[in-house]
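Morning!

This is the sequence you dropped in the shared folder:
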Amino acid sequence: MTAAPRSRAQRRRDTEHRLTQDIDLWVASASEDGAPYPVPLPFDRDGEALLVATPADSPTGRNLAATRAVRLGLGPTRDVFMIEGEVEVLEIDALPQERGDRFAARTGFDPRTPATPYRWFRISPRRMQAWREVNEMSDRELMRDGRRLV
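The structure's back. Tokens below.
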């Protein structure tokens, strides 16, 4: 049985909960020729942007640096939160120490320590959507063009 649709305000609250409680999300990037590449990565959020780290020379690292565009997925397929964002590339030592420490504490992984060179990728959301079932599809947008709708 399909649950009654949530209000956009409730979806916004549910999304905030996921962004606070979840540790990993799907990061979908594409090469310059359009080949898709989704991977799960740990993340942290500072209230405005999301922060992920991956090896600089990995397909995801190369894709994000080249296109500066990303699509993120959070939650199960029957309660999904999608974010389309703009990517800022930061060298691993460019982030303030306390911000890197916070990422490491929250995710259980410190990308500053492996021998493989990592980069930070700061993602500024431009579009956000949240829905569970078809009955929530019509009101799924929570942000458009970087402006919150709810």
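Headline: The chain has a mean pLDDT of 94.

More detail when I'm at my desk.
O.
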